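Long-time lurker, finally posting.

We've been working with Phosphonate ABC transporter, permease protein PhnE (Alkalisalibacterium limincola) and I want a structural starting point before designing mutants. I don't trust myself to interpret raw outputs, so I'm hoping someone here can both generate the structure tokens and explain anything notable. Sequence follows.
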Amino acid sequence: MNQAMRPAKPRPSWGLWAAIIGVVGGMTLWSAWGVGLSATEFFCNIGGGGRLLRESWPPDFAFLPRLWGPFLETLQIALIGTVVGGILAIPVAVLAARPISPNRTTWFVDRNFMNVLRTMPDLFWAMLFAAAVGFGPLAGALALSVFTVAVVSKLFSESMESIDMNLPEAVRASGGTWLEMVRFSVLPQVWPQYASYVMYAFELNVRASMVLGLVGAGGIGMILNTQRASFEYERVTMIILMVLVAVLVIEQISIAVRRRLI
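Top reply, 14 upvotes:
Generated this for you. Predicted structure of Phosphonate ABC transporter, permease protein PhnE:
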């Protein structure tokens, strides 16, 4: 192509970028001042962090055999929460997808219900269910089920909002019911994305299940909290390393599965 015919590249708006950086930087400094962050306090206490690192290394590998049972329980809690929450997320997502929802009222109610689920963190649900059904794996599984519904339904509904609507309209025009439209023309277009979202939720649940154990929701998090309270930092490091390796393995498996599905 002739040099003269090439479209001119848009010049970067340096003034706009400078304004954005200035606003973000100013808001950050204002936030730091508001919460009382102090660089002096940080550097004066950094020695405590070094002492904690020295006490945490090397990991207590002799403690590893005692972790297999709680860690297996953590995986089981994450799996139950993912499966139950993934199934419940399907109708929630269908009703929250605006082009698919049967009417505006249903869409509005379901969308706000989904927003409420996302507003509450998984730790809140764990504390709530622990108070309701007692401490243990059941509370963790219920909390992760709600968390999975919140995550998967949001992503899944957005996928359904971007599908080709010609096929659903053809099903309705030929006399098909709303359920037939969803079953035969909507869901087949988004099943691969749904499977990908469920795998992603399982990754999140494995991480979250360790945190939920800190509030008595079962799993290896309860062991972590006990060792931390006892200042057994070498054992804490061992637990963190074990979970880190497991999460990395699960993440790689999940990535491989998602690449085959999409």
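Before you design anything, note these points.
Residues 56 and 232 are 8 Å apart (CA to CA).
The first helix runs from residue 14 to 35.
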